[in-house]
Design a protein that fits this description.
By secondary structure, the protein is an all-alpha fold. The protein is 77% helix and 0% strand. The chain has one domain. The two termini are 24 Å apart.
């Protein structure tokens, strides 16, 4: 279904999400100490944990977009995970606004905004893909014989 030309929007959005997530993971893992200072925290483990999680997420994204046909269900799961990231960011900012520094809060807002953009682009790409599939009709059934 998603080997259709309409899949290119979704594929590009997933690739951009992969690049940002992978780069973020590397930054968090290499500079966890410096980032914890930016956030006004003494603990590095939250950033190391997020970095490891982002590595797995980036790997999942790579598996999804590198196949000839993008699985729409997996693309929807990615969108859901992006929305959960945004929700988690909002909870952090609203429930514990003074738990991190002003710079940390700004970074959370910036990253959540970028993730929201990915979710929007992926949603748009998925809608286009599904619309194109609906116009094409069901795939023909092959009979053995």
């Amino acid at each position: 279904m998603s080997n259709h030309p309409e899949a290119s929007v979704l594929r590009r959005a997933l690739q951009a999400n992969f690049a940002f997530s992978g780069l973020s993971a590397v930054i968090l893992l290499i500079w966890a100490d410096e980032i914890s200072d930016l956030f006004g925290l003494e603990m590095q483990w939250p950033f190391i944990g997020i970095g490891i999680s982002l590595l797995f997420f980036a790997g999942m994204l790579c598996l999804i977009f590198s196949r000839p046909a993008i699985n729409p269900t997996l693309a929807a799961v990615v969108i859901l995970l992006d929305l959960l990231w945004i929700a988690g960011s909002l909870v952090l900012l609203l429930a514990a606004p003074n738990a991190i520094s002003g710079t940390g809060r700004q970074l959370v807002v910036i990253v959540a905004s970028i993730v929201a953009l990915f979710a929007l682009l992926q949603f748009y790409g998925l809608r286009r893909l599904k619309a194109a599939a609906a116009r094409a009709g069901p795939a023909p059934v092959r009979r053995a014989g």
